[in-house]
Prior knowledge:
The complex is a heterodimer. By secondary structure, chain A is an all-alpha fold. Helix content of chain A is about 75%, strand content about 0%. Chain A has one domain (about 1-105): Helix Hairpins. The longest helix of chain A has about 30 residues, at about 65-95. Helices cover about 75% and strands about 0% of the residues of chain B. Chain B has six helices and no strands. Chain B starts with a helix and ends with a helix. Classes of the chains: A mainly alpha, B mainly alpha. The interface between A and B is large, with 77 and 86 residues.
Amino acid sequence: MKEISSAIQLIPLEHYIFLSVALFCIGLMGVLFRRNTIIMLMCIELMFNSVTLLCTAFSAYHSDPAGQVFVFFIMIVAAAEVAVGLSMVVMMKRNIDSVDINLLNRLKW
Amino acid sequence: MIFLFYMLSAIMIISALLVVFSKNPVNSVIYLIVCFLAMAGHYILLNAQFLAVVHIIVYTGAIMVLFLFVIMLLNLNKAIIPQKSRVTRISAVITGGIFFLVLLAATRQTFEIHARYPFRGDIGLVSEVGNTLFHEFLLPFEMSSVLFISAMVGAIMFGKKDA
């Protein structure tokens, strides 16, 4: 345990910021890139997780456990979002027999 | 340890890119599970043991199985959905890249980060996180049960045949 916490101080906090920014941008790119609704939901999960990683890194570097409690709440929100989103996907498959997001464009304009 | 950090980061970024670019949705789910396992490794490196365990149980164990279950249930593992047009795809990649550059430049140039308190190794343990959760954040914790109830009701209403 001591080794881990002494080794992590050698990595600057900026590297965690770069990593989570990269993950967030990959998730954003995936939402814009794909037409499959399930893949888009998975990319939203990726964006959630980049933010939680950054929260944990700040919490560990500033020695404040409140950041890790925020991560816990973000996980709660993500679980609720996945439940509602996947039931929407199932309903979409049942009604229009596809999960292509471009077929549901009546709210677009 | 430092080598471990960069290796886990490389695994995460490569598997996240493969989530976006792989054709089969089942492969995307598998790559996302790899990405989440690497993220649990990051949590262990940050000495956040509670979050690492919860992340493996909740994300890799529950949420990704739910995704896989829906994909298998709807029989999407063979259905190929046509991709977006080439212009849209290229502009999506350019948008992501430019957003990445802007955020990177903003975090590099605008502020410096200093730790507020000296480094403590024990803040990620279950006792510390639980103390904070049940002392300072008790009301949001109770409100999250309301959120779950409403999400459950919403999911059931979406799933009904004649809603």
